[in-house]
Give the backbone structure.
Amino acid sequence: MCGEKTAPQSVAKQVSGRGPELRPFLKVENVTKRFHQVVANDKLSFDVLPGEIHCLLGENGAGKSTIAECIYGIHHQEEGTIYINDKPVALSSPAEAISTGIGMVHQHFVLVESLSVLENIVIGTEAATPILDFKEAEASIRTICERFDVHIDLHAKIWQLPVGQQQWVEILKALFLKVRLLIMDEPTAVLTPQEVQRLFRIFREMTEDGMSVILISHKLDDVMRSDRVTVLRRGKNVGTVTTSNTSKSELTNMMIGREVELRVKRDAHEHSGPLLEIRGLRAKNDFGAEKLSGIDITVNRGEIVGIAGVAGNGQGELFETLMGVRKATDGTVILEGDNITNFSTHNIQKKGMGYIPDDRFSAGLIGDFDVQSNLILGAHKEPPFASKGILNFSKIKEFAQKSIDDFEIKTPSEAAICRTLSGGNAQKVIVAREFAQATKVVLANQPSRGLDVGVIEYMHERLLDKRRSEFGILMASEELDELFGICDRVLVMFKGKILGDFRSEDADIETIGLLMAGQKVSPTRKPV
Amino acid sequence: MSLTIEKRLAPSKKWMVLSILFALVGSAIASALLLRVTGADVGVAFAAFFDGAFGSSRAINKTLLRATPLILTGIAVTVAFRAKIWNIGAEGQLYAGAMASYWIYFIIGPDIGLFILPVLFLAGFAGGGLYGGLAGFLKSRFQVNEVLTTVMLNYVITYFMSYMLVSGPWRDPASYYAQTPRIDKSVWLPKIMSGNKLHIGFIIAVLCAIAVYIMLTRSSLGYEIRAVGHNTRTSMFKGINIGRTAILVMLISGGLAGLAGMIEVFGVSHRLSAEISHGYGFTGIIIAMLAILNPIAIIFVAILFGAFYVGGLTMQVATGVPSVITSAIEAIILLLFLSASTLTRFQITWKDKT
């Protein structure tokens, strides 16, 4: 890192001390946004100065994404005003937001997979002529890449890029549009620790130019690199603090209103023999490229095995193959001595395997179904939920109400449409369902992605409960703290291979971080 | 001020009713204007329209008779559309059902009288079902787009039937037209009331609509169909066999359309010819969309369409407006209904730009 460029103090000083001369670029004043009876933002106010990294921190459902989407013109607040450069604005679409100088990178990227990086950057722009000038665009994008030290093949198709690289495409898009304010929703979820460092270096370059960044994040490590933090709780601003004057524990306290121990304690538990054995497993992705190149993993009864690795290194394909959604081209999967390789998904679930997917609304839930219907998905043909092909609604409702109570799912009722739930509560619906259906093994892909500390802890407790009842658990995560916290063993996955196998007690974050980047431990080399 | 359109979280019941009212009033005004332009007396025309569609028990009977195949094709495409399988082949499946039932009649003959009816119903359902199921099989086995196959299969069955009726064994040797001989009176679908043409096919169609409603909302199968329709990927991850569901859906969808064909042959035309369907398979798509894929609502929308046709005919006779005017009015009504129905799914708000 270059010393002179990482100087958050400059802005921070002005914030705390000589504030008045710096007019905020963005001012949010008493904004209230409701979704039916649910208040997502409640008289929310904060401002963002030119040249600052401003972090929005809060639990799931605290209204962070909602306020960001109001600023970006996706939603429209019922009350309150948003000012840009002291002028009130009412943005009715992202296109208008972009023309006002606001860009946003969503948690789930909105890129066209089959188009190239260059095309993806250019298609969003409003061209003066109907013919897009790719030559000129390419030249100016190259200048941006050099300026910010981003290395990316502009002619590669999006699907060929790892997820971490796709994020750069989104950021380049915003830079190409010359935005003055960039909103980043959970940007570090898909990056290695080394890539996170680079991302912040780029943020600093941007703020040097007077641009502002709004960072939505749950990771306290990220938050601590910002200039100021606004903490949201139930749609309200609990407080805006200067980062250099606060601490992780103070922020956590503000965020959830109580002191928490960040790590769930993993008690000693002796596992008892192999339960799930994966031997030499190979599989291809939808484009025919091999994504699993001979995976060997053993999960024992009463053991949690973690897979560390940046998303996109085959974790998704591994779980899909284990669940029978993807065909294994080679290798075997053995559950309690039975070979279940390439069984149908239905039969694999009957054997006692449950799966918590990483993409809640595209693989885990049916957004347009109500909560109760989602809770019985997969068990909808069997008693008590159905007999002779007819659904038993009173039994379904009873089960749903019990699940909602047990898992503390915040929903107006069991008949609420699932799509309207916040990310954390949607995840709880999946967890409740899979825990009810699985009898032996629970697979989980990035189970805590996008969730707040409270829900993550809750889920960890539940996973440990399952471990105590002799389940085998295999989970992939990018959160090393999470893996070290609850896993008995941690493996590292890189490009379809398992690179390391550590007992959690023996592993160190630095080594695993390097393995995640595909490097054999050689700290002298400059990180990617 | 600016106009913004936002998607509603759930379709609004209030606006569903209001939009129907808007569309009705709007189409009345538009039709009146159109009639005025052609020089017809609007009052007389409207009176004739209502009289023709609902004015007497005979008129109501005619309306319901016309609605019968539309109810069946409407629910047929609904079953498929709920699974997001775009069956555009109800027309072909209707003919497949008509042909299958006629074939069985051709083999067994009229000797056993009405006892043949259950077999004929089954044959109609099976004929349409297998024909639709073929498209479902191609979709699940070879990922062939069902829009293509179902549309193409419409042509295949029409030409196959032409062959059977023109130079094939089914042709009525005594007739100049390409049609089969008249079916023996003993196997015509029984009338609901003597003196009227309305037959038990109407009751069967209504029962089918209710059955499909129950199937979709209360059964495991219907749950799976809706699950696949809303989110195929999640359904796959939860062990629902997508291919099997596609085939099953197309069997049921085609079967219901086939039933419509059988009912038209044995209840209305009493012979098989290329004229048994007046585009019922395609009108069924419009009806299903207007009824927001609700089988119970389809019964009423289909009756409304029956009324348009029957009332329109009377209006033509009474006022002498050209027949294309009634088609134009029908189209106006459709467009207004479809545009008004967006109000149930979207909300439009005026916003102050300060």
About this structure: Chain B has a mean pLDDT of 90.
